[in-house]
Design a protein that fits this description.
Layout (H helix, E strand, L loop, with lengths): L18 H10 L4 H22 L3 H25 L10 H5 L4
Length: about 100
């Protein structure tokens, strides 16, 4: 009997070298550019600092993936909010995505 797991988790697909620039470009043309661009830049700066300390690109990849997910669901969220449905039982995005360090 082996102590190894039966299966290894599949790592996320590697990001393109231009992924952060592409996300920032999409944010700049979005309806929420006024708030999202500074928020992305703040997250990026924090990820860059974490990356410098850890000698890993993972914090930067986490920032890009989080913002890619936000951009992906933004049209659905806007549609839901425009529909006038009750959203009082919603879940905070930070809770849904998990703790981002």
């Amino acid at each position: 009997m082996s102590a190894q797991p039966d299966h290894a988790p599949v790592p996320p697909a590697p990001l393109a070298p231009t992924a952060a620039a592409q996300v920032l470009a999409q944010l700049r043309i979005s309806d929420r550019a006024d708030t999202w661009v500074p928020a992305f830049q703040q997250d990026w700066a924090r990820g860059l600092e974490d990356s410098r300390h850890s000698y890993s690109l993972s914090p930067l990849h986490d920032v890009v993936r989080t913002w890619q997910a936000r951009l992906e669901v933004a049209p659905y969220v806007a549609e839901f909010l425009a529909s006038g449905r009750d959203d009082s039982d919603g879940v905070d995005l930070a809770d849904a995505l998990g703790e981002q360090q």
